[in-house]
Amino acid sequence: MKIIGITGGVGAGKSTILDYLSQKYDAYVIQADKIGHLVMEPGGLCYEHVIALFGRQIIKNDKTVDRKQVSDVVFGNELMRQSLDAIIHPAVKTYILEEIRKQRQAGCRLLVIEAALLLEEHYEEFCNNVWYIHTDAEIRIRRLMDSRGYTREKAESIIARQGSEEFFRKHSDYVIINNGDLKTTWKQIEEGIKLL
Predict the structure, then answer these.
(1) What is the pLDDT of residues 127-137, one digit of tens each?
(2) Nearest one of 67, 75, 77, 5 to 37, comparing CA atoms
(3) What is the dihedral of CA 28, 176, 146, 63, to 10 degrees?
(4) In whole angstroms, what is the distance from residue 151 CA to residue 153 CA?
(5) Within a 13 Å sphere around the CA of 163, how many CA atoms are in the beta-carbon half?
(6) pTM of whole model > 0.85?
(7) What is the DSSP string of 67-130?
(8) What percent of the chain stands above pLDDT 70?
């Protein structure tokens, strides 16, 4: 089984790449962000720990964690963000490693892990290749404002907290430029697949 790690800043269009790999190459896709939500569900690895950190007021009527409320708190509070990360990130990594084991046993040929913090969390240790998805900052800001309803200030603040262009390029095996021309993006993906 080959494993591709996909990273890049928020708004880089990583999900577009994942969809293509899933449809064209039958890749099994794991998104760290979605796993992060899963481990915060009632009964999940982090549910009780997150409530202990933020207080019971973050529990919605259906017993799920109000992720918007959590996001609003950590957006303006670096200490709370770090505390949340210390709870969520190890649980996500454990979950992903177990998923890799299951997929390997099931005979999966191509598995793709997408994580904004793929390099910071050292996922490259179990990936054959790391692909960095680059998109110009202004395009990313516009995407975040359009798709998530972020203000320009929030989009810029989130982008500023993420790894630099230089950092991503230095630690990646392959770079895909994803500024909106999908034919060019698809061609780059196909070139990247040949390198595996």
Answers:
(1) 999 999 999 99
(2) 67
(3) 30
(4) 5
(5) 22
(6) yes
(7) HHHHHHHHHT-HHHHHHHHHHHHHHHHHHHHHHHHHHHHTT-SEEEEE-TTTTTTTGGGG-SEE
(8) 100
User: Tens of pLDDT along 93-135?
Assistant: 999 999 999 999 999 999 999 998 899 999 999 999 999 999 9
pLDDT above 90: percentage of residues in the chain: 88
Residue 125 CA to residue 176 CA, distance in Å, equals: 21
Q: Which amino acid is at 131?
A: W
Q: What's the length of the chain? A: 196
Written as six digits, the tokens of 40 are 């915060």
Rounded-to-integer distance, Cα 182 and Cα 49, Å = 41
Cα dihedral 139/6/90/121 (nearest 10): -80
